Amino acid sequence: MTILVTGGAGYIGSHMVHTLLDAGESVVVLDNLSTGFDWAVPKGVPLVVGDTGDQALAASIIAEHRVDSIRRPPRYTEIPFRSRSTRTTRRCRCRLTAPPN
Ligand SMILES: NC(=O)c1ccc[n+]([C@@H]2O[C@H](COP(=O)([O-])OP(=O)(O)OC[C@H]3O[C@@H](n4cnc5c(N)ncnc54)[C@H](O)[C@@H]3O)[C@@H](O)[C@H]2O)c1
User: Fold this and answer.
1) Mean pLDDT, contiguous 10-residue spans, the chain (101 residues)
2) Which among 14, 29, 44, 80 is placed 20 to 30 Å from 8, CA to CA?
């Protein structure tokens, strides 16, 4: 069985891939390389270049690699807020979605 890491050619995702490999897991990466790099994916790990929105592609990866789990980096966004103490507009980093199990 294999873990699919989306965004696995990016900064956080590639570290996630290394951690999973160190734990003895089999990994496949789906990444559209919009900001990631193929060299960031460890040798021996299949990299499928494509978009997570491509359902047919995702289905074929799941079937071909017998994927039983999907992981992705946690998503953060910056939300502006008005600071009472400094009376300036600042930005707060907030987690958008739960981290992968
Ligand atoms: N860099 C940090 O210190 C940090 C810390 C905590 C959380 N995060 C969060 O983790 C996430 C990833 O951050 P990062 O620094 O690794 O960014 P990154 O740009 O290095 O990695 C994102 C990866 O996702 C790929 N990607 C983007 N859209 C895609 C799509 N539709 N289909 C397939 N692949 C796609 C990119 O090509 C890239 O490889 C962000 O949401 C960020 O907010 C980052």
Assistant:
1) 94 95 96 96 97 94 95 76 82 61 50
2) 80
pLDDT-above-90 percentage for the chain: 69
The protein residue with its alpha carbon nearest to ligand 1, atom 22, reads 10
3-state secondary structure of 8: coil
* d(CA 54, ligand 1 centre) in Å: 17
Distance 2 CA to ligand 1 centre (A): 21
Query: With the C-alpha atoms ordered 64, 65, 66, 70, is the resulting torsion angle positive or negative?
Result: negative
pTM: 0.83
DSSP result, 23-92 = TT-EEEEEE--SS--GGGSPTTS-EEES-TT-HHHHHHHHHHTTEEEEE-PPPEEEEEEE-TTT-SEEEE
